[in-house]
Amino acid sequence: MAQVTGIGGAFLRAKDPKALYEWYEKHLGLTRRDGCFGFDPAQQRARAVVAFFRTDADYFPVAQPAMLNFHVDDLDAMLDALTAAGVEVDPKRDRYDFGDFGWFTDPEGNRVELWQPKEKNK
């Protein structure tokens, strides 16, 4: 039987896609290739996940249909840089044995999650 072999992408609607691309490039250092952001599989530090939440779950805003989650190499430094740039950053941090999590809100009001995976060999 045929099977899925990985995540192909995340697709979100935006009021101003061009401005949102530019914001993510400036604040997260993402690089656009072929009109979208792409990630080299060799740079992935942890697995990509797909998780389904109940429509009334409060893990991210109920009015927001999806939430992006990006791997980062230094969660606190990234969130400090976003705060210094005037970005709305949630002061809460969750720390687990599989990684650390933090959140910010992008210019279109989307809550975005950052995940610093724990090193595999630790």
CATH architecture of the domain at 57-122: Roll
Q: Could you name the CATH homologous superfamily of the domain at 57-122?
A: 2,3-Dihydroxybiphenyl 1,2-Dioxygenase, domain 1
Largest sheet at a glance? Answer: 5 strands, mixed
How many beta strands in the DSSP annotation?
A: 7
Report, as a whole number of angstroms, the end-to-end distance: 36 Å
Uncertain runs are none
The helicity comes to 10-25%
C-alpha geometry: globular
Strand content: 15-25%
Rg of Cα set:
15 Å
Structural class: alpha+beta
**Please, how many helices?**
2
Instruction: Kindly report the average pLDDT value.
Output: 90
Q: What is the CATH topology of the domain at 57-122?
A: 2,3-Dihydroxybiphenyl 1,2-Dioxygenase, domain 1
Order of helices and strands: HEEEHEEEE
CATH class of the domain at 57-122: Alpha Beta
Organism: Silvibacterium bohemicum
Domain VOC: 6-117
InterPro entries: Anthracycline_SecMetBiosynth, Glyas_Bleomycin-R_OHBP_Dase, Glyas_Fos-R_dOase_dom, VOC_core
Protein name: Putative enzyme related to lactoylglutathione lyase
